[in-house]
Design goal:
CATH superfamily: ACP-like
CATH class: Mainly Alpha
Order of helices and strands: HHHHH
Shape: globular
Number of helices: 5
Number of strands: 0
Helix content: 55-70%
Strand content: under 5%
Number of domains: 1
């Protein structure tokens, strides 16, 4: 899962594949509320997936402050 945190493209691929959301590079800066199919359950699913794969806790409070997938990815990079 380290590679997913290393690259924004890898992270977007994870969101696309594991959460089944139709996101691409052009969606990285879109407000999460504007992403088709995005909701708070997807954020929790993403946290659970990353924690299981990486064996480390991810601070949900920091992710809740993120407004875009790029910001979510930035939080993950800081936690790596």
């Amino acid at each position: 899962m380290r590679g997913v945190r290393d690259s924004l493209e890898g992270f977007l691929g994870l969101v696309r594949g594991e959460l089944d959301l139709p996101v691409g590079a052009g969606d990285a800066d879109r407000d999460l509320a504007e992403l088709p199919g995005w909701d708070s359950m997807n954020l929790l699913r993403l946290v659970a997936l990353l924690e299981a794969e990486g064996g480390r806790r991810i601070p949900v409070h920091a992710l809740l402050e993120a407004h875009s997938l790029r910001e979510v990815h930035s939080v993950l990079e800081r936690q790596a």
